[in-house]
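Contributing: when you submit paired examples, paste them exactly as shown. First protein:
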Amino acid sequence: MSNLWRNLILALGLGVAVYIILSVIVGLDDLRTAAANFEYAVVPLILGLVLLSYVGRFFRWMYYLRILKVRVPLATNAAIFAAGLSMAISPGKLGEVLKSVFVRQVNGAPIARTAPAVVAERATDGTGMVAWGIIGALAFSFGFGVLALFLLATVVAIAVLRSKRMSLLAEKLLSRLPVVHRFAPHLHAFHESSNELLSTRPLIVGTVISFLSWGIECVAVYLCAVAMGAESPFLVVVFIFAVSSLAGAMFFTPGGIGVAEAGLAGMFVSVAGLAGGIAVALTFVIRLATLWFAACVGIFGLVVVRYIIGGEGSVGVVEAAERER
């Protein structure tokens, strides 16, 4: 558990450093002026929409577990999913394998069996967000090339995960390496689950759910812009949010910190034509609503899971998750 809190504190420290740098670049006076004009009455609606988007993703998680024939009581599963959001600050959110460790604690399902559900979530997050990015790019005469690269990277990753040849090669390589050789016997189960979850039908269903969930979050992000007084069209905001989020995931920094903020602030100035102070203030608000709010919900979920599973048991689960990563 201590490692979990340490990682969260490190991510928070990195975030604060990035925000300080951006604040200095645009000037504190301009930033204070922009923040003072923010309509705080809209905050409950913004956070409500973000929570609703998490509900959509929870249905996707349940859909994947049903495909894998893994049963978890609804309330417990909801708490496990919420706890996974605490890993929003992990690189590519892959730390959400924590959910698989909790599932193992509840019903004994091997981590290698359910961890591909987390990978499938990230894959369909990519396809769903690329779809929104393409829609947003309709407002411009550019952007399609960048989004095509993101889509290509996602397709290649899915193809590699489904490849039997790559799975056998990875198993052979891991078996020869010190320390990590113990993971080699689990690759067969991991590959089987990946094949199930990334086959055509689950991939389409997962992408549709992702598209709808991200759409709700895009509305929340647009409301952030409205509350900030930024007069930017919906599609422009969607494009900027999609590209910045995808870039943050691809560069694998914790929670996309640094990359996503630079993308948001930079494109709000260069693409949307906003003043520097408003662009940076809006970036802060969006990241608070989409990244740090998720981490807070995740911490609450961890507390609930600890209560459901049992204090000592849940500590062991978290420590096991840290060892798995």
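Second protein:
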Amino acid sequence: MKTLVYTLFALLAFAGNSILCRVALGNDLIDPASFTAIRLLSGVAVLVIIMQLARFKRVKFAGELSQQSQHSSNHASAGLISYRPQARSKGSWKAALMLFVYALTFSYAYTSLDTGTGALILFGAVQITMIVVGAISGQKLHFSEWFGVMIAFSGFVYLVMPGASAPSISGFVLMAVSGVAWGFYTLEGKQSSEPISDTSYNFIRTLPLVIILSIATIPFSTITPTGILLTIISGGLASAVGYVIWYAALAGLTGIQASVVQLLVPVIAAIGGVIFADEVFSLRLGISSLVILSGIMIVLLGKHYLSKR
């Protein structure tokens, strides 16, 4: 039940980022650069608080452990028992750069994309990036997995084909870049043993880039109180807390479960766009969603069952 609750909250947070960004930018409540900067800054603030709370919990545990060792002084070796905190993992500049690229292109893409379309492109690009990187690094793909990749790619081709409901090419490219960046960020943190610390320091490392972005875009900025509020919710709650909760959910999910449940995000985002942004769920989006998600499902499930065999 705990894993289910964590997973549901994380998926709602991921979809919430798309909804909040689209509502804020679609109604000209804030400009993309300011949305990116405030989102990352609010994420830093919340993550620093979370990191300090986690550190306090560890220190409290260390104190209790020390007291237990003192009570065991009747043993000859008890005096040697002590708590030695390990060196904290602090992310990397590469991960921070990928995080910044993801956030920036994500914001600019949503100036011209509907909520559901943007989320579909984002999470489709994330999954395909991780599959391709795995193949390039030496992981051989079975025929069924290549078949799934081709189906997913054909769904993207159909999505951007000329037509009244086709998304803008610039928006598609920007969101695809965002998905690729997030895919690399995910791969970078896949081996993280300190998710809270790594995530916090990755956000902190984006600050120099945030400052440069803010200075360069001040003449073009558009900020309203409502826009700031939506951005803070996106950065502090949907991003910072959402990412931490997702790491907690991963502890109770298998790799295949974690990959598959994320495919629900575009559906949740599309529904949210209809409710909160007065968008229309087009037939093209419905068909392309079915094709893309089916292709990715074939890849994930095919790999899962082949590995079991």
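If you have annotations for the second protein, write them as plain sentences, like these:
The chain has one domain: 2-72+90-308.
The radius of gyration is 22 Å.
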